[in-house]
Amino acid sequence: MTAPVVVGLDGSPASVTAAWWAAHAALDRHRPLVLLHSWTTQPLDVPVAQEARSKQRYGRAVLHRTEAELLHRHAGLTVTSELVAQTAAEALLDRSGDCDLLVLGSRGHGSVASFLLGSISLHVLSLARCPAVTVRADDPTVESGWGHPAADGHDDIVVGVQHPGPGSEPLLELAFAEAESQGGRIRAVRAMPPSWRPGVGEGTAETERLCAALEPWREKYPDVPVVEQTAVGSAAPVLLSASAHGRLVVVGRRRRPHQPWRLGPVAHAALHHAPCPVAVVPHD
C-alpha cells in the first residue's frame, strides 16, 4: 500500500491552507491524500455545541467540503477522509508510522498553534516518526484556494546542513525531492559560530565539506540547481536570513531516546519565524 500524505483538518483557515499545500505535495509525490479530523479536538472558536453529535456533524461537514473542493481543483488527486475520536495528537502520531508526510496548520508567526492547540502541535513535531510540515494561515507561498495563487519569487528549498554527514541525509533527501518536483532550487545553508575564526584555507575547507555532503544528491538529481551558503553567525539567524525567499525550509530533529520531546533551537526558530512552510525531519 502506498504511504499517504496526511493532513490534520479542523476547518480553521490555518488547516485549510495546510490542506491545499498537502494536496499539491500528494500530487507531486504521486501519493494519496488523507484528510484527518479529530472531533474531540476542535478549535476553541468553533461555534458548535459541546454534544458529541454536534461535533461529529461539524467534522463531517468540514471534511466533505474540503474534499469536494480539492477534488474539483485536482482531478488526478486521490482523497479519503477520516473522522476520529482520538485526540488529534494521538491520531497523527499513530499515522506518522505509516505515512509519507504529516502536514499541520500554523496560525502564523510568533506561535506554532494549529488545529492542535498550542503545545500539542509541538508534541507532534517532536515525536512524529516521519517528516512533518507546518503551513501557516495565509502563507504567501501557498496556493490556498480560488483566487489565491502562490506568490512569485519564492523558488528556494532552503535546507540547514549544520553537521554534514549521515545525519543530514534525510534532510537532503526530502529537500532534493521537493526541489525536483516543484522545479525549485536547493539552497544548502551551514552556519559557522560567531567565535569561529578561519585560518588560511579553513573557510574553503568548510565550504568543500558542505559540497562533499551535497555531491551524492547532485548526482541523483542532476537537474536540480544547488547553491551552497556558508556564513558566520548563529545557526538560527543564518537559516532565517536564507529563507527570506524560500518556498520551503527543511530542518532536522534528532531522535533522542532520553529526551523525545526536545526540538532544537534552530527548528524552534524556523517554526516561529520562517516566512514559508517548514519541514521538520527526524534523523539519528
Please describe what this structure looks like:
- There is one protein chain.
- The protein is 37% helix and 22% strand.
- It has helices at 13-29, 52-73, 88-95, 119-127, 169-182, 202-220, 235-242, 265-273; strands at 5-8, 33-38, 79-84, 101-106, 132-136, 156-160, 185-192, 226-232, 246-254, 278-283.
- Helix 3 runs parallel beside helix 4 and helix 7 runs parallel beside helix 8 (265-273).
- Residues 109-118 have low confidence and may be disordered.
- The protein has two domains: 5-136, Rossmann fold (3-Layer(aba) Sandwich); 156-283, HUPs (Rossmann fold, 3-Layer(aba) Sandwich), CATH 3.40.50.
- It is built from eight helices and ten strands.
- It is α/β, with parallel strands linked by helices and 284 residues long.
- A ten-stranded mixed β-sheet has the order 3-2-1-4-5-10-9-6-7-8, with helices on both faces.
Number of helices: 8
Give a count of the beta strands, DSSP E runs of length 2 or more: 10
CATH architecture of the largest domain: 3-Layer(aba) Sandwich
CATH class of the largest domain: Alpha Beta
- CATH homologous superfamily name of the largest domain? HUPs
Quote the average pLDDT: 84
Radius of gyration, in angstroms, nearest whole number: 19 Å
Major sheet = 10 strands, mixed
Could you name the CATH topology of the largest domain? Rossmann fold
Order of strands side by side in the largest beta sheet?
3-2-1-4-5-10-9-6-7-8
Q: Rough shape?
A: globular
Which sequence of SSEs, written as H and E, runs from N to C? Answer: EHEHEHEHEEHEHEHEHE
Report how far apart the termini are: 26 Å
Instruction: Give the helix/strand class.
Output: alpha/beta
Uncertain segments are 109-118
| Integer count of domains | 2
Strand residue percentage: 15-25%
Q: How helical, in percent, are the residues?
A: 25-40%
